[in-house]
Specification:
Blueprint (H helix, E strand, L loop, with lengths): L40 H11 L5 H14 L15 H13 L4 H8 L7 H14 L4 H8 L9
Helix pairs in contact: 1-2, 1-3, 2-3, 2-5, 3-4
Length: about 150
């Protein structure tokens, strides 16, 4: 990254009035835009294998490709958790190389499955089951979950 590279971001959303929006048609040409293309599957595999080698990386990459292909057209906002970014893939790769038995739970945690609506969660988990399956550790963790009702 070049030493003079700068990134500008807003912590608050712009206001509803046009006068509240600082990034206007007049200010926009002052910025130099750098389009960054998406990495291909081979490039992602190369980055992941170099940064966090694991025997489960092929399954993670297959899942990422399948999820990206499964997003219905026109519903990007409701299925935004379905595409796994390179950062998420690196996080998953590091976690899987350290704890290989918890792949399914890690994918769910990284994709924020708990915040998806029921239909999206069901579809996501079906794809996850087809591509990765459920590891034994995930099943063992679920066996220890129990509910007790006291005094009532």
């Amino acid at each position: 990254v070049h030493a003079s590279f700068r990134l500008i971001a807003l912590a608050t959303p712009p206001g509803l009035k046009p006068s509240d929006q600082w990034l206007s048609a007049e200010v926009l040409p002052l910025f130099c835009w750098l389009p960054v293309p998406r990495l291909s599957t081979a490039e992602r595999a190369e980055v992941l294998s170099a940064r966090c080698p694991s025997p489960h990386l092929s399954a993670v990459l297959r899942l990422a490709v399948r999820l990206q292909a499964s997003v219905p057209k026109g519903t990007e906002s409701t299925h935004s958790g379905w595409t796994l970014s390179l950062r998420q893939l690196l996080r998953l790769g590091r976690r899987v190389s350290e704890h290989p038995g918890s792949l399914t739970a890690d994918v769910k945690r990284v994709a924020l499955v708990g915040f998806m609506n029921v239909a999206a969660r069901t579809s996501f988990e079906a794809i996850l089951q087809e591509e990765i399956g459920q590891s034994n550790q995930d099943v063992d963790e679920q066996k220890h979950i129990g509910v007790k009702i006291k005094n009532g």
